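Interim report to the steering committee. The following record documents the input for YgiQ family radical SAM protein (632 residues).
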Amino acid sequence: MRERPITHWLPITKKEVEQRGWDDVDVILVSGDAYVDHPSFGTAVIGRIIESEGFRVAIIPQPNWRDDLRDFKKFGRPKYFFGVTAGCMDSMVNHYTANKRLRSNDSYTPGGEAGFRPDYATTVYTKILKDIYPDVPVLIGGIEASLRRVTHYDYWQDRLMPTILEDSGADLLVYGMGEQPLREILRLVKSGVPLNEIRDVNQIAYMDNVPSVPEHETWSTVALASHEVCLQDKIRYAANFKIVEVESNKWQANRIVQPVGKRTLVINPPFKTMDEAEMDRSFDLPYTRLPHPKYKNRGPIPAYDMIKFSVNMHRGCFGGCSFCTISAHQGKFVASRSEESIMKEVDEIAKHPEFKGYISDLGGPSANMYRMKGKDESICARCQAPSCINPVICSNLDTSHKPLTNIYQKVDAHPDIKKAFVGSGVRYDLLVDDFNKNNADGNHDEYMEQLVTRHVSGRLKVAPEHTSDATLKVMRKPSFKYFRKFKEKYDQIQDKHNLNQPLIPYFISSHPGCEEQDMANLAAETKDLGFRLEQVQDFTPTPMTVAEVIYYTGVHPYTLQPVYTAKTKEEKQNQNNYFFWYKPEFKRWIKNRLTRLNRNDLAKRLVGDYQPNYAQENLTAKVRKGGGKYRK
């Protein structure tokens, strides 16, 4: 296959700008990620939208912030504004584990190398740009800016921080998925409105240089407790979160204001969820679907390798899980693409020079929410609930899997596709009739049969997250009994077709509402089901989640009632240890610990009549430490 000309990518060097015959650039994007021209990478999407609106756009991916800052100066001053994003992840989540240990790799960098973006990248980049070009406006966006738009708890500094607009000095913030507000902003700046004077676009936030702002002629306004009050009163901070989450999930939301020092943060209401035509317009832009050629000799980009043969069919999630940022950033309501757009992308994937006929994922944030929405959308327009499926599935929610089954079958019939897998996690509770009463025509069973027999690549990912009903209630997840019922249904289909494709359940330790005995019981219940859990997620409190608020304040933001949370390193490690009941080096600890907790019943379920073998345990400990001849 012939190499594409460099002009098929958006320019990232001065030479590439000159090759296009440009003397200057209208908008410059600065990103913490390497530039991959693919619709799963936010910088590519934003860049292509700016291009589609007739602007000359260039990208500065992963600039060096430690040297003489030449990367920030290479294109000079943009005509309209700089756009800044930390990348596809919050930079602190990207850099650190739940135990605050520095990660040794970065999936969004060539070769997976760490160290190519700073901590708090959005703030660092913006401050540099403001220092070099103080009169050029800066627009910030992406998940880091979006989830830090109000006063928020930062786990890594263990303190409350103000809106990222205050810390960074940016002029404007776009929150959530940015296509709709960005197109409005571009239309205004093209008409002559300076970016730092834009005030009436939905889904933006900005700082007003007054302690209070006048009423808006279109939107009602709801006030949060000030940043300074939050610093002194955790309960007021918790109450703030409920307001922000409720307004973020409404179709007809209010404007939010929050005093910060002598200024006021203003957050305009979000746009209504993108419709099918708008989604297609974003995904059908002329992406090369390839990393920029500059990275050719630096090694593969792991995040790209994972998704290059996948299709993202929808956005958003109506689950509203307490620990998850998907609905906080992408929205509670699901935005789906048309079949035509999806099949067009399948055609493009088939042209990829490395494609061997296997699509790695037909999915989305939750794989099986495609085209799901309210039956009567006037009811949705009045809804304020953070979840459509917790504590029960809304009777107004259309959970038909028929459109998804049809897509799977059409992709299967494509002449260039040997197999299309579902790599995203499946929301299993939607497929359990005892929990989901909206399965009138039995289409869920048809979907399950199609999924299990045609689209599982060895193992299927699902996320029960816990077994304790009390913890699951805090998580906004259904009872574990429904996972058992799903597993029964899944195993029946496997037996029918003589398949052996194990379920891979995901669980979280140390989540708010989880006590140590709950983790021991989780280990016992999953052992009884035949699971040996290998990958375990320790809870990380990320901004703009219910669980983060509980972790910091000790209370649930909706009830303001206390909720226990494991916080010390010892408490968190104790909970994590129970996952590994099958490893010799943990058996003695588990038995002793549960004996002290007066839970001999759980000790017997997990380690039986275990008697310590100190010589073997000492040998195992040496192996784990990687000591000399004992390494295996």
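The two ends are 44 Å apart (CA to CA). The committee is asked to note this result when reviewing the revised timeline.
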